[in-house]
Amino acid sequence: VYFATDQGHVLRWDLTKKAAEPVKGFFCGSTQVPPARLRLPASRRCEYGVYHVSKKGVHVCHYPANALMLHDGQLVRACRSGNMALLDLKTRKSRFYMSGYVQAMTSLSAGELLLARDDGELRVYHAGEGKVRRTLKLNGRPRAAAASDRLALVARDDAVVVWPLAGDKVLGMIKTPSPTVWMRMLGDELQLMMKNGHLVSHKIEVK
Fold it and tell me: What does each C-alpha distance from 23 to 29, 94, 152 come to in angstroms?
């Protein structure tokens, strides 16, 4: 079991040892706090990320890991710094890609990932080739992403927008009563967890 923290660490939970072990080379990184911001309260010293004082007394902001998933035998993580990394779990080799601030991501077919950036740009990234194959545009900030064998879906604050996997024309939108914090496709059913705590489902029909 893999999980990420708001301080940028990616860890693997060993079920036998019942302990968490860091995934080497997957730390999101940190930046030193500018001297001018040290005058601010600790809670405001980092524009984003988590404020921390190192053992050597250095004031830093740790970039959080904001997305983590398994994809075709690879562990994929995206950091608030705009850096994405893919770790092959067999060879233990890593590759890095400057993706921008990715808010959500999901697996597509044929080795592709859908990366939903904070600025609303959606990148269809082929993990094997290490290239962006095409881009889509979301009018709004992405909250979550999901996909089926035919569709790609991205949630924004007020709706879920639906595209065909093979095209760039929006098929439709599903209005939501509250921002989406998590979503998945299960067969032809879209399941949403809302910020207000409600679990909502919709049947998706494509003609």
Answer: 13, 11, 30
pLDDT over 70 (residue 109): yes
- C-alpha to C-alpha distance for 153 and 3, rounded to whole angstroms: 23
Cα–Cα distance measured from residue 20 to residue 11, given in angstroms and rounded to the nearest whole number: 6
Residue 183 scores a pLDDT above 90: yes
Compute the mean pLDDT over every residue in the chain, rounded to the nearest whole number.
Answer: 92
Q: Which of 77, 42, 78, 82 is nearest to 61 (CA)?
A: 42
The rounded percent of the chain whose pLDDT value lies above 70 is 99
Residue 193: Cβ within 10 Å count: 16
Mean pLDDT of 61-84: 92
- Whether pLDDT at 207 is above 70: no
Contact 52, 27 (CB under 8 A): no
Residue 148: name the closest of 162, 134, 127, 128 by CA.
162
Beta strand pairing status for 50-53 and 131-137? Answer: unpaired
DSSP state at residue 38: G
- Are 51 and 43 in contact, with CB atoms under 8 Å apart? yes
**102-136 burial, b if ≥16 CB within 10 A, otherwise e?**
bbbbbbbeeebbbbbbeebbbbbbebeeeebeeeb
69: how many CB neighbours lie within 10 A of its CB?
17
**Which residue type, as a one-letter code, is found at position 164?**
P
Query: Looking at this protein, which amino acid is placed at residue 82?
Result: G
The answer to whether the CB of 182 falls within 8 A of the CB of 190 is no
